[in-house]
Design goal:
Elements: H1 4-41, H2 51-57, E1 60-71, E2 76-87, E3 99-103, E4 124-131, E5 143-147, E6 152-153, H3 156-166, E7 172-178, E8 182-186, E9 191-200, E10 204-209, E11 212-213, E12 220-224, E13 228-233, E14 242-249, E15 256-265, H4 272-281, E16 287-289, E17 301-305, E18 310-316, H5 323-328, E19 330-334
Parallel strand pairs: 3-5, 8-15
Antiparallel strand pairs: 1-2, 1-4, 2-3, 4-5, 4-6, 7-9, 9-13, 10-11, 10-14, 12-13, 14-15, 16-17, 17-18, 18-19
Helix pairs in contact: 2-3
Length: 338
């Protein structure tokens, strides 16, 4: 038999162990509760994503007809009748022609994108959702899911886009390619660089120069289509030379980068003042009136060049006034000696 003091110690030990176990259990429940709240606030996708990216990221995607709408400051709920399943979740298992409630959580940023004017009863929508978390109240007689993005109105384009991204092996990471990898261009000309891109969903393309994002202006323009992106630089300057990068990204993988080095060649054109001074210096010589009036023919003006000891006449090919053109168009025609 145990002594009385030993029995008291054993009872205290059991109590302390039970308290520790209870505290650990409460601590675990608290952590799980806060984690579920955090994950619930993270379920909303970026509203700037396209339909293909939303369909790829959402756990549940279906086509449904809007039957009922409940809207209030505290409740934002839509009732759909499922018409077609694109992607299902094992925890929900939606079926065709079944009813499902789409909830917009107040703790979820998706509730901020909810606009009553965007929805019309009996219209078909593509719905992006996730399974309801364990902290949210469930009704086992009604299927409920949580919105991760604003539903899109169904049309041929959105239906084709969702089907093309969710088929097996259809989603592909982004790729970018610029050819050639070295380009030479001249000053004051137009530079065009083309980047061919691939990927599903279609990648988002950005251009960089010397690791700095290029912003469009009147001289620099960027035109991006599905399969290519073209940057055009008008009136190329010296500072336009450098290393250009085409970066393509989508929801599947990190950024794909292709680089090209641009070299600007050529020299600046001489100004009018420098051109005039260069050409006019070659005409600096002493001249005097010709001492023989009948020397020159064809109506020219006779001139004696003292340094050459030659008589010449000057025939003007253009009108006077423009000095540069006058000098370039002046012809010296030597006359016969007496």
């Amino acid at each position: 038999m145990f002594s009385h003091s030993l029995q008291v110690q054993l009872v205290k030990g059991f109590r302390l162990q039970a308290m520790r176990t209870c505290n650990a259990g409460w601590l675990l429940l608290t952590v799980l509760f806060f984690w579920s709240q955090v994950t619930a606030t993270m379920t909303c996708l970026d509203d700037q994503l396209d339909a293909a990216s939303k369909a790829y990221a959402a756990p549940i995607v279906f086509q449904g007809r809007l039957i009922r709408l409940q809207y209030s400051p505290t409740i934002k709920k839509l009732k759909f009748r499922v018409k077609k399943m694109y992607k299902n979740d094992k925890d929900v298992l939606l079926k065709k022609n079944r009813y499902v409630y789409l909830n917009f959580l107040t703790t979820n940023s998706c509730a901020n994108t909810f606009k009553i004017k965007d929805f019309e009863l009996k219209r078909k929508f593509i719905v992006f959702a996730t399974a309801q978390s364990s902290t949210e109240p469930r009704n086992y007689f009604k299927k409920s899911v949580i919105a991760v993005a604003l539903p899109l109105r169904l049309n041929r384009k959105t239906d084709r886009t969702v089907r093309n991204i969710l088929c097996r092996g259809c989603a592909t990471p982004p790729s970018a390619r610029i050819h050639p990898i070295r380009v030479r261009t001249k000053l004051n000309t137009q530079l065009k660089l083309q980047c061919k891109v691939k990927g599903n969903p279609w990648p988002k393309v950005q251009w960089y120069k010397n690791k700095k994002l290029i912003k469009e202006n009147k001289r620099i323009q960027i035109q991006t289509k599905r399969k290519s992106s073209v940057i055009t630089v008008k009136r190329v300057k010296r500072r336009d030379g450098g290393r250009y990068e085409c970066r393509a990204s989508n929801i599947l993988a990190p950024i794909s980068t292709s680089k090209v080095k641009v070299v600007v060649t050529g020299s600046r054109k001489p100004t009018k003042s420098s051109e005039h001074s260069t050409e006019s210096t070659s005409w600096h010589f002493k001249r005097s009136p010709c001492n023989v009036q009948s020397f020159c023919l064809n109506g020219g003006t006779c001139t004696m060049i003292e340094s050459l000891q030659e008589r010449v006449y000057v025939l003007m090919a253009i009108k006077e006034g423009d000095v540069n053109k006058k000098i370039r168009s002046t012809h010296l025609v030597c006359c016969h000696r007496l």
